[in-house]
Amino acid sequence: MASEEQDVLRVEDLRKYFVIGGGLNPFSKKEKFLRAVDGVSIRVPARKTTAIVGESGSGKTTLARAVTLLDAPTGGRIFFLGKEIRKTAKPKELYRNMQMVFQDPDSSLDPRSKVKDSIAEPLHGLVGGDRKGIYKNVLKSLEEVGLPEEYADRYPTSLSGGEKQRVAIARAIATYPKLVILDEPTSALDASVQAQILKLLLDLQTQYSLSYMFITHNIAVATYFSDTIAVMYAGNVVEYGQTRSVMTKPRHPYTVALVSSAPLPNPKVRNLLNVEIVGEVPSAIDPPSGCKFHPRCPYAEKICSETSPPLEEIAPGHFVACHFVEKTA
Amino acid sequence: MSSSNPIEKKRGTRLRSFFRIMRAHPGLLAGFIIISILMVISLAVFISGLFGGRITPYDPIQLFVGPRQAPPSWSHLFGTDTLGRDLFSEVISAMPTDMGVSVAVVAVAVAVGSSIGAFAAYFGGMFDEALMRVTDVFFALPVLVLAIVISVILGPGIVNMMIVLMIVWWPTYARLARGETLKIIHQNFIEAARLGGLGRVRIVFRHVFPNMIYILLVYATLDVGTIVLVYAGLSYLGLAVTPPHVDWGQMVNLYQDDLLSAPWLPLFPGLTIAVSVVGFSLLGDGLRDALEVS
Amino acid sequence: MVELLSVKGFTVTYKTQWGNVRALDEVSLSIEKNTLVCVVGESGCGKSTVALSIIGLLPQGASVANGGEINYKGVNLSSLDENRRREYRGTEIAMIFQEPLTSLNPVYRVGDQIAEAILIRVAREKGKGAELQTEVMKNAYDSRSIRRPSRLRIRSTMPPELKAEVVQALKLVRMPDPEQVPERYPFELSGGMRQRIMIAMALAEKPALLIADEPTTALDVTTQAQVLKLMRGLISEVDASILLITHDLAVASQVADRVIVMYAGDIVEDASALDLFGEPLHPYTQGLLACIPSGFKDESQLKPIPGRLPDNRNPPQGCKFVTRCPFAMEICHKKRPKLLEPRPNHRVECFLYGE
User: Which of B164, B251, C145, C255 has CA atoms 20 to 30 A from the CA of C219?
Assistant: First the structure.
């Protein structure tokens, strides 16, 4: 595992709680919290891709937004390029090196701005410079993401979903940031377009030594695309490590269920029909006690409903949060 | 899943798409024609007035330019009143007043209201709460009562009535802008702008307003028609213009007693009011359909 | 294998502001009894249009060209008028959609909505089908109707036999807590549960064919696995066929007996699941399979298909895939390929296999 100085991002015990009102009584002191991210500690090694995988309610998108400080975290620490950013970061300095690509291509671009203006925006806002210089950079960005120069003067409504995502990517890398957070960038795209975008992202990563934090619910994409992977469930990381290690031999019971639920494109191996996962993702307001997965876990015992298991290193670089991890060996 | 829609607007085809839209939306075309005519006439009357001339066939306030209480004829298109004034000239000369007041009131209401609403929605918190309560108060104010009260305090007059109408109308746009802003700020491009280092105020001007402009335009256009009617009501009550100036509402008041003896006298001013209201409605509805605004 | 439904030479065009879009171009396919057929394709390929054509719910701007047929139990459904068509909709052929929240009526309990479906079946069996259907079916399937559904709410409790059937329907779809769920409103349930309710409602009619349009796309992957497993099991349990529309080839490989691949309004390949994945014949199918990420990035290469989907308003003269096909020949630019059968029960539309 890379040493700490080589991590572009390190998150310690990050929490993001949303306050849910206390009912009809405006004076009620009974506030409830939606624990979207409930103590997450992960590392994103430099020049590599870390995938955050989970289903709805896992907190993966909230994690991404908390890291960028778009939603102020409730607790924990965030170290970016070695410096703690929660208290000391100035947005303009932070975002020069940390950018984000969003899931929905239709809402990522201002429909009333031309493509060139959308891409130039972070250059104007974070770097500055004269119009001509910035325009040259915009054209260069278009070329890098495989779009022809004529697209600069077009409006997003005349672009396809894949093209819009390319523009969003061009905008994100315009300042050549160190870390790009990709929140389900291909989930809304067709399979062939997804492959094009993933290939583009890989090429850009090699060319500009970018680090990626890749949020997705698609196991196959995460397995293919990432170097390290973190599996989230109901606001916690339940398993974390090198992708090869975690995906070949998942150890947390949830990861096992998740991986076996992912459809393989092979009609001879119908793994899907043998999946035995039961129940639903728990409420984030009133989560189960102890280990949040215990109501659905086939190996759960008394201790699982009492204490939440910490992340433990069960093999070099492979961490699992489970009291009975030996049961999945 | 998005798919591509490569509709390009090069400079030459802008005009062509303008005509295509007009052909596809007959209501829009009708409204556009009506309002254009009214606006052109208003402007012509106003400008000629500045230079001391006039474009109307007769001087509107001059008495006895024709026979008294004459019905419409080729020489007096709308007829004449008991004092021999040409009705057509009177109606036309009032056009800049009625049009101008309505457009001005809506313009100010939109500008002030939408700014307040947009900033309240984006910045939220106490500011937003305060705005909602203030607009609640203003919504409760009845136009006519307020108008009468103001006219008692400050005296009647066009400007005072314009102020009344602006006060009553801006909250509508504050609410509208607030609602639209709330929709817009949840879009990802707003967050991308923050990640691009833009401050919140700049985001409102750069990204929020341009995306609201179509819906504001549609509502404003429809509202101008409404204001024409409301203002006509206020001037009917005598709260607006003072003689010898005229405007349509006041004309209806002036001539209402002649309804049975010389029906053209109250009819034509009233008809003109109706036509302008319908024109703005058609234009506003047409814009809504053509711009695909909800 | 007995044929249940077949589509022959069906062409559908949509009139839009920007021109006429050819959504389906002389499409022919066949569904046999007790099978699960998957129609797979990317956006704009026409897969949803196929589903809507079969059930007769094409939107207003759609026009069907003459000569197309949808043959079901000896009747050409597309030649029927709306009243007669309605007799098949929801009864012989049922459909569920992608987003269950908008398919379920939010102001009625789910138990009532399932009961409504059961009542329709009962009425149909008694022969009173037509009148009751006119009102109830309109509300169940036509979102444009605003009339209130039937007399369910006049009684505040359901008669016990009806309740028992509702519970039975829920057990069929493996709903946890089948006794309590009928009292719930749709918003109280999760996406996976709502989709099961939709399936239960569709099956309450005992249809011969269930059409599912991207039923699991909006669901989590573990929930998707549960629902797909359920659908696969239902085929034998309720003596029905399922037509599953999806954009996900991997999903198709896991549940389908037969896979039909569509591209830009055409069927390009039609084969059993084993044959299609074992020996994909059409270059598009091959390209699509190469696009699916599998394994780790240092082991395998993602080979994206170059180019873009064609413009459905101005379809190219020859094969629609020609601009993106690595094997394109001269004839591919000039003529449209016909559906051939180079292997037994494995059809392809491609000049590589003859003319």
Answer: C145
Assign A244 to helix, strand or coil.
helix
Peptide bond into B244 cis (omega under 30): yes
Residue C139 in tokens: 């509300």
Written as six digits, the tokens of B116 are 């307040």
Q: Which tens digits make up the pLDDT trace of A21-30?
A: 655 556 656 6
Residue C111: give the domain boundaries: 106-206
β C258-263/C266-272 pair status: antiparallel
- In the CATH hierarchy, which top-level class contains the domain B25-43+79-291? mainly alpha
> Hey, what are B163's tokens?
């102020």
Mean pLDDT computed over A253-259: 92
Q: Which residues of B touch C311 (CB under 8 A)?
A: 4, 6
Report the helix count and the strand count for chain C, using DSSP H and E: 12, 13
pLDDT tens figures, A86-131: 887 788 889 999 999 999 999 999 999 999 999 999 999 998 889 9
What's the mean per-residue pLDDT of chain A?
89
Domains of chain A by start residue, with CATH = 4-328 (3.40.50.300)
The chains in contact with chain A, meaning 3 or more Cβ pairs closer than 8 Å, are B, C
**pTM strictly above 0.90:** no
Could you give the maximum distance between any two Cα atoms of chain A, in Å? 67
pLDDT, position A19? 84
CB atoms closer than 10 angstroms to residue B11: 6
User: What is the rounded average pLDDT of the residues B152-173?
Assistant: 86
Give backbone dihedrals phi and psi of C73, rounded to 5 degrees, phi first.
Answer: 50, 45
d(CA C93, CA B163): 64
- Give the residue among C196, C202, C195 at the shortest CA–CA distance from C175: C196
Segment C251-293, tens digit of pLDDT: 999 999 999 999 999 999 999 999 999 999 999 999 999 989 8
Domain ranges of chain B: 25-43+79-291
**Mean pLDDT estimate for chain B:** 85
Measured between beta carbons, the chain A residues lying within 8 angstroms of C308 are 160, 162
Question: Looking at the complex, does the CB of residue C218 fall below 8 Å from at least one CB of chain B?
Answer: no
The residue with tokens 């079916």 is C137
List of chain C residues whose C-beta atoms are within 8 Å of the C-beta of residue A60? none
Buried-state track B204-218, b at ≥16 Cβ within 10 A, e below 16:
bebbbbebbebbbbb
The residue of chain B with its CA nearest to that of C44 is B3
For the segment B247-261, the average pLDDT, to the nearest whole number, is: 86
Q: Which residue type occupies C69?
A: E
The residue written with tokens 């009011």 in the block is B273
> φ, ψ for residue C7 (rounded to 5)?
-115, 130
Terminal-to-terminal C-alpha distance of chain A: 22
User: Do C79 and C153 fall into the same domain?
Assistant: no
User: Does residue C97 fall inside a structural domain?
Assistant: no
A107 and chain B: CB distance < 8 Å anywhere?
yes
